[in-house]
Design brief:
This protein is α+β, with helices and mostly antiparallel strands. The chain has 2 helices and 4 strands. It has a 4-stranded mixed sheet, covered by helices on one side. The longest helix has 11 residues. It is elongated, with a radius of gyration of 15 Å.
Length: 68
């Protein structure tokens, strides 16, 4: 039987995150320091508000991903 890789095999376990008020220069520094390509952006309610990568901020459409 072949060994199937899982997300756990390749994911980052120590999560580094930023908040909505983090300066772009600080995000760029964190990306370099931690050698990652993106960081989750955490809102005040501790939910993921979006993802920041390579100096750009991408935020989900309001209501996206919610059950109806």
């Amino acid at each position: 039987m072949k060994y199937l890789r899982t997300v756990d095999d390749v994911m980052t376990h120590a999560v580094i995150s930023v908040d909505r008020l983090t300066a772009f220069k600080d995000i760029a520094e964190a990306l370099r320091m931690w050698d990652v390509s993106a960081l989750p952006v955490i809102a005040e309610d501790r939910r993921v508000a979006g993802v920041s990568s390579g100096g750009t901020r991408r935020f989900p459409t309001p209501g996206a991903g919610r059950s109806r």
